[in-house]
Specification:
Helix content: over 70%
Number of helices: 7
Order of helices and strands: HHHHHHH
Distance between the termini: 61 Å
Strand content: under 5%
Number of domains: 1
């Protein structure tokens, strides 16, 4: 039940973020629903393809789809009202969604006896895949790959679960809190990974 609640929060957060990006890009109502839905469920679809779960399993999450559609509808009808609240609480919900989905994806892969590499990739795709798809469809560079430490926390969750460091319920809940807090710290204190640019100056002697 607890994981369902956390996953529900993550679904709402990702659906809202996708809908807001679509409205920023001035998409029509169909585009808003498509981008919101893809952000909420795209990562899970890619995870299922990777680890051998039928993609049709996503359609068994009827309640999650209904909640996501309601969230997208609310954003479309009351964009300015919800945007003010999203700016205050959106990053927190996003952190919860990232943590819950990354752990969920890693558990899926572990239960199917996949190797560590597949567990880590499943965690990343489930936790961050929806955001990557959202940005690509919106014609943006994926934020999770360039601006913030985001996917790293999903990798950490996959690594810990794949190495069987956390397996009992209380260990998984502790991991959930850890990943959520690290994500909050990373955007609060603006942590960034090292990066290099291949601009013109780099080629000058």
């Amino acid at each position: 039940m607890t994981w369902d609640v956390l996953s529900m929060i993550g679904t709402i957060a990702f659906a809202v973020s996708g809908a807001l990006v679509a409205m920023e890009e001035e998409y029509d109502i169909i585009g808003v629903y498509i981008l919101g839905s893809v952000t909420a469920f795209g990562g899970g679809a890619f995870r299922n393809l990777l680890i051998g779960v039928p993609v049709s399993a996503l359609w068994e999450q009827g309640v999650f789809f209904h909640v996501a559609l309601l969230a997208i509808t609310a954003v479309f009808i009351f964009p300015h009202y919800l945007l003010s609240h999203w700016q205050k609480w959106g990053n927190l919900f996003d952190a919860i969604g990232l943590s819950a989905f990354a752990i969920q994806g890693a558990i899926y892969a572990t239960n199917m006896n996949h190797p560590l590499s597949a567990v880590i990739v499943a965690a990343v795709l489930t936790g961050a895949g929806g955001g990557i798809i959202r940005d690509l469809l919106a014609g943006r560079k994926p934020i999770v790959l360039r601006a913030e430490i985001y996917a790293v926390w999903a990798i950490l969750a996959g690594l810990i679960i794949g190495l069987n460091i956390a397996s009992s319920p209380w260990e998984l809940y502790t991991l959930f809190v850890l990943v959520t807090v690290l994500r909050i710290f990373s955007y609060t204190f603006k942590w960034k990974l090292p990066s290099r640019s291949l601009g013109e100056n780099n080629y000058e002697s």
